[in-house]
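Risk register update: the risk that structure generation would not scale has been downgraded. Supporting records follow, first protein first.
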Amino acid sequence: MPLLKDTTLGIDFGTSNSAMAVRQGAGLARMISLEGSAHTLPTALFFNAEDHRTHFGRDAVGQYLAGTEGRLMRSLKSLLGSALLQDKTAVHNKMVSYQDIISLFLRMLVQKARDELGGMPARVVMGRPVHFVDGDADRDQQAEDALRQAALDAGFAEVSFQLEPIAAALDYEQRIAHESLVLVVDIGGGTSDFTVVRLGPERMARAERGSDVLATTGVHVGGTDFDRRLSLDLLMPLLGFRHTGPTGREVPSRVFFDLSTWHLIQWLYSPRALRDAQNLRTDYSDARLHARLMRVLHERLGHRMANTVEQAKIAASLADAEAPMPLDWIEAGLGAAVTPEGLAQFLLQPLEQVVACAHECVQLAGLGLQGLDAIYLTGGSSALRPLRQALKAAFPATPQVEGDLFGGVAAGLAVSGR
């Protein structure tokens, strides 16, 4: 297959969703269709135990929710930089590491790019958060190295990296008419990243843009953390979280935290984890709560609960109205709901961390609250109403501009490859 010498492929491998864009020559970046006509797809794999095939994206989630026998994996990006990345698990009767599974997902993207372009792009630029791991430079480098190796194993010949908020800034720059100082806010599934950058039409042609980037910051808080918080507050009590047992002590909480965390759910289905959960029975005063927990684990319903929380979060934010979370597939009549007020309350603590990181970025850039021309929002979780309200309270005089929430980073990565 030919090497496309004047072509750059940008890959936004996200915690929750992934996207790709291509730039050929001096043209504009364009998105690549990944699933039908959709330019993004969930970063999800489903290992179907019935047809022994691997399914990706919406198809993977749909297979799982339809009750097909198999294993769903999501949020694998969250394992980068952790010891769990090299752990092995059984997939289609073989033992493979989670890094190998990331490579399998990237291999699917390689094939999509080949089909779209008729060859392999000469340059591949992958996005990365400001910090894969907060406060640990060695583990952060290990995470990038592992992602690079996964991409090479998937079939890419050479891979470089660009910070995701800088990529988003470069995409935004294609659409502004005058020079601006912008705070780029990129809220993804696993991280929140910020860049203060000087953008403008006359700056686009410069080969060296390092002096235009005034500051970057990031924190390992994102959409999946928001989901976990809602799950712990609204759904896990229905399984025994914060339940007081016969000795007057609460049921040990680790199983509920893991069950509320996308990339940890799969570990709860192992024989040892199931035995540990069964042994919690004596810690419960209410046997119904423990029975619900065991049904969720035995029937592998954890990802379905997480999906229910995620969809309710989105619905409550977009409609600014109460969103139900029915759990009748666990027990008839079981369920909860999230209100806009409850959403803001439950997310208050993680949003305080996000806004503090934004403030830090502006301070590192040497700017005051009046020094910004715009706040540019990208990343799926930046659509959340409580987040936008928190940023408005923190930067009341700065207009917020919504970008391509799911495709902007991929497009900027393709642009950055020039």
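Supporting record for the second protein:
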Amino acid sequence: MREVIDEGIYVEALLKDLYIDRELVGERPIETIFMGGGTPSLFSSDAISQLLKGVQELVDFSDQVEITLEANPGKLEAEQFPGYRDVGINRLSLGVQSLNADSLRALGRIHGTQEVYAAVDRAKRAGFEHINLDMMFGLPQQTLDMAQSDLASAIALETGHLSYYQLTLEPNTPFHQSPPHLPDEEILWQMQRQGQMMLEKVGFSQYEVSAFARQGERCKHNLNYWRFGDYVGIGAGAHGKLTTVDGVIKRRWKRCHPNDYLAATVDSKGFTQGDRTLQPEDLLIEFMMNALRLREGVESELFHATTGLPLVAITELLERAVDKGLLLPDSERLCPSPLGRRFLNDLLEIFEVKRFS
């Protein structure tokens, strides 16, 4: 049975968490807010409203703040879409995964295909102009034709953003412990390539490994991740990356279990479970792991601007990547080649050095 936690108490904890962390934000306005990492759509619109009002009292919002809510396309969640839109949510991300009934059952999803259609319709009628659909390929027993048909059904829903990524078998999951029959590597590549061509044919542009958007529909929140920007994380299990005033970059994470997280309001341990200062070699690989996911790459100067490290110090590594055909020979940008995008892990291995020199 799912444990029920009072949403009002949890929102209070979130705001206390942010109150403690707000000094790390400083004078920087909040550009994006992303409510994810579980089922935030189980919160009522009143609770979301309370949270957003409280956040705005603690930190400044930019004029064009993007506020995203992750939601499952089930009936109960969809019924709340109008309320979410009314309290300030302006972007919705729906965890569809598939529009094939057999695939949904194989994935253990509780929603059906008709609920997806109804959820997208409800979201549009509620006034959401920015909707993302999360779709997977490489599903159990899936053929190339099935993957193309599934994606075509998603395209027909006419949203502005679509995430299309391969199913991975995560540790400590039933699939990992008892792996289902999955498509082989060649079929997976065809699914990925054919899917990319289908999306581009109807006006979607691939701007990241698994992200496709129509004009003006790119996700600002995720772009900040990929450009190695800062973000503060509040809530159970939340992670953050912040640069201090003296240029030190730290990753921080909060207590994982909700009950442990809520206990921070009554004991002296605080919400933060741990933090780690990124060393130069950490900064190098973490920057590249994010920036090189972008199809257009990033400006070369962003490396120094966000890490504080001199780009000239990795000239040898950059030249090696160019010589292997994995990085484009462009002094103004760090941009993966088509081959580098396909074999991204091989490209990243070049930057996995044990020490920074």
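The chain has two domains: 29-225, 280-349. On this basis the risk owner (M.S.) recommends closing the item.
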